[in-house]
C-alpha cells in the first residue's frame, strides 16, 4: 500500500471537527447543509448519511481541510530531511489529484513546500558557522582525550595543564567543551595518582 498522509500518520481524520467536515461536504456536493443527517470520519473516507435515507462515501481529498492538513504538515517540518520525506508522501497524494483534475490543492502544497524549503535553507546557512564551531570544539575535545589517555606520568600531565588552559581560551564561547577537557584531565590525574600510590 502506498504511503499517504493518513498511512504515514501525519493526518488523523478522527480528529477533524465534524461540523466543519459537514459544512465542507455540503459545499463539495453542492447541496443544502440541512440535507445531511450526519457525517462519519472513517479511516480513509467520509461516510455521508443524507436525510432521505441514502448514503455516500467521499474522499477527504475533495475537501479544503485536507489541503490545509498538508500545509500544516509542511510548516511543521523542522529540517530538510523531514521536508523531503513529506515531499515524497505528497508526491503519492499527487497521483490521486492528477486522476481527479484537482490541481489547486497541488499548487497550494507546492507553494508551501517551496516557501518552507527556502526558510530551512536560510536557517541552515545561518546555523552553519555555529555548527562548524561546535564540530571544531568536539574534535579538540576528542584530540585531548587521546593525548591525555597516552600520558603515563603525573609530571607530563602537569605540563599539559598550561597548554590546555591556553587552548581553552580559544573555546571560551563553548564552556561545555572546555569543562569536558578539564574533567578528562582531572580524571587522568586521579588515575595516575592512584596507580602510583
Structural features, described:
By secondary structure, this protein is mostly helical. It has two domains: 13-101, no CATH class; 129-196, no CATH class. Helix 5 packs antiparallel against helix 6. The radius of gyration is 30 Å and the shape is elongated. It is built from six helices and three strands; from the N terminus they run αβββααααα. Helices cover 66% and strands 9% of the residues. The protein has helices at residues 18-29, 64-76, 80-100, 103-150, 154-168, 175-196; strands at residues 36-41, 45-50, 55-59. Strands 1-2-3 form a three-stranded antiparallel beta sheet, covered by helices on one side.
Q: Taking all residues together, what is the mean pLDDT?
A: 89
Assembly state of the chains shown: single chain
Overall 3D form: elongated
- Tell me the domain tally: 2
Distance between the termini: 68 Å
Q: What structural class do helix, strand and pairing data support?
A: mainly alpha
Please tally the helical runs, counting DSSP H or I stretches of 4 or more residues. 6
Major sheet description: 3 strands, antiparallel
Total E-strand runs: 3
**Helicity, as a percent range:** 55-70%
Radius of gyration: 30 Å
* Helix-strand sequence: HEEEHHHHH
Amino acid at each position: 500500500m502506498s504511503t499517504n498522509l493518513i498511512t504515514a500518520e501525519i493526518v488523523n481524520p478522527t480528529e477533524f471537527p465534524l461540523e466543519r467536515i459537514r459544512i465542507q461536504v455540503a459545499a463539495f456536493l453542492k447541496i443544502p447543509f440541512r440535507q445531511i443527517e450526519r457525517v462519519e470520519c472513517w479511516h480513509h473516507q467520509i461516510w455521508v448519511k443524507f436525510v432521505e435515507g441514502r448514503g455516500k462515501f467521499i474522499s477527504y481529498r475533495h475537501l479544503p481541510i485536507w489541503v490545509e492538513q498538508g500545509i500544516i504538515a509542511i510548516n511543521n517540518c523542522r529540517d530538510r530531511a523531514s521536508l523531503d520525506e513529506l515531499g515524497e508522501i505528497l508526491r503519492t497524494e499527487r497521483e490521486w489529484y492528477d486522476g481527479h483534475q484537482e490541481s489547486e490543492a497541488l499548487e497550494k502544497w507546492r507553494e508551501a513546500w517551496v516557501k518552507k524549503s527556502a526558510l530551512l535553507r536560510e536557517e541552515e546557512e545561518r546555523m552553519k558557522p555555529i555548527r562548524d564551531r561546535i564540530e571544531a570544539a568536539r574534535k579538540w575535545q576528542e584530540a585531548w582525550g587521546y593525548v591525555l589517555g597516552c600520558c603515563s606520568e603525573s609530571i607530563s600531565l602537569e605540563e599539559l595543564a598550561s597548554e590546555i588552559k591556553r587552548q581553552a581560551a580559544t573555546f571560551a564561547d563553548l564552556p561545555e567543551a572546555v569543562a569536558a577537557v578539564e574533567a578528562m584531565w582531572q580524571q587522568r590525574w586521579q588515575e595516575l595518582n592512584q596507580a602510583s600510590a
